[in-house]
Design brief:
Blueprint: E1 3-6, H1 17-31, E2 36-39, H2 49-57, E3 60-67, E4 73-81, E5 85-89, H3 91-94, H4 112-123, E6 128-132, H5 143-148, E7 152-154, E8 173-175, E9 187-191, H6 204-212, H7 219-237, H8 249-261, E10 264-266, H9 268-275, H10 278-281, E11 287-295, H11 304-310, E12 317-324, E13 336-341, H12 349-354, H13 356-371
Parallel strand pairs: 1-2, 1-11, 5-6, 6-9, 9-10, 11-12, 12-13
Antiparallel strand pairs: 3-4, 4-5, 7-8
Helix pairs in contact: 1-13, 6-8
């Protein structure tokens, strides 16, 4: 019996990573009927991170009430593994899907709810936190998150400001006298796959602001606000977060986690593979099958397939993908042996999405029959 690892990302818009696992499994079993299959659905730090990690590593979810970006009370979940590790998606409390796309106002938004989840994890004696910081609605440099942990943001008259994005520009000092000190006694990893600095032409506001409702009118308030917070963090804590790669992730939450929680920013897929003990799971495997919706020249920048191939311990890796785009050839130099697209004839995107299950199953079967690597 041959051991085969199935570890894809989701095909966004058509199938979750777990669904993709199931479709690939069916294709494998058509060719290798006695295969010992291990399914590991993964995400890169964005939507689905908690679900995928708990599936692979075991654990439970905990639901708590937190504030969404607008300050409304909602229910959010996070995962607990082995009683001392937590997996959090910031999007559960501070995500773009939680606000109305027609009335988005990032000036008023806050990551306070994300801080509430972290606080709850501390209250459950968590010693290590993995926090995925994709899909944010916020652009507040994490001051809302920090406020939930006890930081206070003061204006020039020493009055406390509400920890929302529009007030970043007004912050004159940061009071850390009431911070929950437990935050400094645990390990926090922020799963982050973007390299944007905090502000400027390639910063959080410029690159990701438009989808969050940033306009020409409020752009400077937010971007200069991020710059102001970075200046005060340097003066108060001696930390320079301005140009750290990933500090601009999630509207500056990446930088905020470094400044306020001593967090480490790390590749999303590497963070996931670490917490699920990937190298242990693939021992004695004959083949690893990964995949995602599209593979191109950007896949080398920390995307799931390449992240897996780099840590495959010389086990062959093939990728089942929705489509192959320009620049995809680079992944062959990074450990992926073969790419198999799911399309088996000319069809519209809508038709492909409605037949995702069959197409992934069929592509997997074709890949295994074609390469015939004597598994």
């Amino acid at each position: 019996m041959k051991k085969i690892i199935i570890i894809p990302d989701s095909f966004k818009g058509s199938a979750s990573s777990l669904e993709v696992c199931n479709y690939i499994e069916k294709g494998v079993l058509k060719v290798i009927k006695d295969a010992d299959i291990i399914k590991i659905p993964v995400a890169d730090g964005g939507e689905g991170t908690v679900e995928s990690v708990l599936y692979a590593a075991g654990g439970n979810t905990k639901n708590i009430n937190v504030k969404n970006p607008e300050g409304k009370i909602i229910e959010a979940k996070y995962g607990i593994i082995n009683k001392d590790k937590a997996v959090i998606e910031m999007a559960e409390a501070s995500g773009l899907t939680l606000v109305d796309d027609k009335t988005r106002n990032p000036l008023k938004y806050s990551t306070y709810g994300t801080g509430e989840i972290i606080k709850d994890a501390l209250n459950n004696n968590i010693k290590e936190i993995l926090i995925g910081i994709g899909g944010s609605a916020t652009n507040d440099c994490g001051i809302g998150m920090a406020n939930a942990l006890g930081y206070k943001f003061l204006d020039k008259d020493n009055n406390e400001l509400e920890a929302v994005a529009e007030n970043m520009i007004k912050v004159h000092n940061i009071d850390d006298s009431n911070v929950d000190k437990r935050i400094f006694n645990i390990k926090i990893i922020a799963a982050c796959d973007v390299k944007n600095p905090l502000y400027g032409d390639n910063g959080a506001t410029a690159v990701y602001g438009k989808q969050k409702g940033v306009t020409d009118k409020n752009f400077d308030i937010l971007d200069n606000g991020l710059k102001n917070i970075a200046k005060i963090i340097k003066e108060k804590f001696g930390k320079e977060i301005d140009y750290i790669e990933g500090s601009g992730a999630a509207g500056g939450l990446g930088g905020g986690l470094i400044a306020f929680c001593n967090a480490e920013l790390k590749s999303g897929i590497d963070s996931i593979l670490d917490i699920i003990d990937f190298e242990d799971k693939i021992k004695e495997a004959s083949l690893i099958i990964t995949g995602e919706g599209a593979i191109d020249g950007q896949t080398k920048e920390g995307k799931v397939p390449v992240g897996i191939a780099k840590r495959a311990c010389n086990i062959p890796v093939i990728a089942i993908v929705g489509e192959i785009r320009e620049g995809a050839d680079i992944v062959y130099d990074l450990g992926i042996k073969s790419i198999m697209p799911v399309f088996n004839r000319a069809m519209t995107i809508e038709e492909a999405i409605s037949n995702t299950n069959f197409l992934i199953e069929n592509a997997t079967e074709r890949a295994l029959r074609f390469i015939n690597i004597n598994l």
